[in-house]
């Protein structure tokens, strides 16, 4: 089978390797659609400590090809997606429902071979039946599950005024979930006009063009600041800029992933005096199922969030363009040929 490798930071290739065999309790999945994520670009740029070579990719859907011994709930031909976070469910953290701190954590596309390949094996407990959901939409279950985990953490309330920094696919998922959660006002900021037009189309009450007038624009939209600011950029400078946009008692959700060694400067007196809350959100935790239901029911619509649709052979060029921020919205890769 063909698989895409990051051999070392900045160096990629597509190689032929053996199709993995499903072990006991494992499902072999023919990968039909995979989303390209910021995490993949960070791996490509060498921003994380991670073993190389690595097959990245963790936002995928596909068809069950074969099952290993003891697999009860899946059979060949079933359409599926999988939670790429492989938790042990046995350590102290897992037992306390803190699976994203699992002591034996294995992340697909990081510690174990990822989904930018024609086939992949997953433990049965991570696999979900997507029913009639199309493969491209189903590749968005994982990003939406991360967004829902962020909302579990930040708990947007009825009547909150929310500002989303970054109008990429993730920002536009947050926008829809905030609206469903009953936000009083939603605003989206970006440095480009085109994604802001899409944010408007998807129901943003206001859009802010992120230039030197951002603070004035924000004040005009939400006097006194935003109750919740969600950073989806992972750009330290943008996060610093967010603090003055927060209302008293405001919350700032760190959703975008900054480089591991980045630092930001904040004024601790301001955090004290204005009772600000900073919240981290790391991947997902038991939100995969609810994300899948949100897509099946149409509560969240991802049809406009896709950018380039490519084959596996085109990925080396695309990941470079993505790292240079030259792509838009969510790139989807089809390792076994184009499907819907
Ligand atoms: Zn991702
Ligand atoms: Zn564990």
Question: What does it look like?
Answer:
This protein is of the alpha/beta class. The chain folds into two domains: 2-140 and 305-334, Medium-chain alcohol dehydrogenases, catalytic domain (Quinone Oxidoreductase, Chain A, domain 1); 145-280, 3-Layer(aba) Sandwich (Rossmann fold). It contains eleven helices and 17 strands. The protein has helices at 38-45, 92-95, 135-138, 141-154, 169-180, 193-201, 214-221, 236-242, 268-274, 288-297, 315-323, and strands spanning 2-8, 11-16, 26-35, 59-67, 79-82, 85-86, 106-107, 119-123, 127-129, 161-165, 185-190, 206-209, 226-231, 246-254, 277-280, 306-311, 330-334. The strands form four sheets. Strands 3, 4, 5, 8, 9, 16 and 17 form a seven-stranded mixed β-sheet that branches. Strands 12-11-10-13-14-15 form a six-stranded parallel β-sheet, with helices on both faces. A two-stranded antiparallel ribbon has the order 1-2. Helix 9 links the parallel strand 14 and strand 15. The longest helix is centred in the middle third of the chain and has 14 residues, at 141-154. The protein is globular and about 60 Å long. The two termini are 21 Å apart. 48% of the residues are buried. The model has no long low-confidence stretch (mean pLDDT 96). The structure holds zinc ion (2 copies). The site of one zinc ion has 5 residues, from loops.
């Amino acid at each position: 089978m063909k698989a895409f490798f990051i051999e070392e930071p900045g160096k990629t290739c597509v190689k032929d390797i053996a199709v993995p065999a499903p072990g006991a309790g494992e499902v072999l999945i023919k990968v039909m659609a995979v989303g390209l994520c910021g995490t993949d670009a960070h791996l490509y740029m060498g921003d994380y400590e991670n073993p190389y070579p690595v097959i990245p990719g963790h936002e995928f859907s596909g068809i069950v090809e074969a099952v290993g011994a003891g697999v009860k709930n899946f059979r060949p031909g079933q359409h599926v997606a999988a939670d790429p976070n492989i938790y042990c469910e046995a350590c102290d953290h897992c037992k306390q429902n803190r699976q994203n701190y699992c002591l034996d954590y294995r992340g697909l596309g990081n510690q174990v071979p990822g989904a930018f390949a024609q086939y992949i094996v997953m433990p049965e407990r991570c696999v979900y039946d997507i029913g009639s959901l199309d493969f491209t939409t189903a590749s968005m279950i994982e990003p939406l599950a991360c967004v829902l985990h962020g909302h579990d953490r930040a708990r947007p309330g009825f009547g909150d005024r929310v500002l989303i920094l970054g109008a990429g696919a993730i920002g536009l998922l947050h926008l829809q979930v905030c609206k469903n959660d009953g936000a009083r006002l939603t605003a989206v900021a970006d440095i480009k006009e085109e994604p802001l037009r899409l944010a408007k189309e998807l129901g943003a009450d206001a859009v802010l063009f992120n230039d030197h007038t951002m603070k004035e624009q924000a004040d005009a939209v939400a006097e006194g600041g935003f109750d919740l600011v969600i950073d989806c950029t992972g750009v330290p400078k943008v996060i610093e800029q967010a603090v003055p946009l927060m209302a008293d008692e405001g919350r700032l959700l760190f959703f975008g992933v900054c480089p591991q060694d980045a630092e930001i400067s904040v004024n601790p007196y301001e955090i004290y005096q204005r009772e600000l809350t900073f919240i981290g959100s790391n991947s997902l935790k038991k939100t995969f199922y609810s994300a899948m239901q949100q897509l099946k029911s149409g509560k969240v619509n991802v049809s406009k969030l896709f950018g380039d649709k490519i084959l596996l052979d085109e990925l080396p060029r695309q990941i470079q363009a993505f790292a240079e921020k030259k792509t838009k919205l969510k790139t989807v890769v089809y390792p076994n040929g184009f499907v819907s």
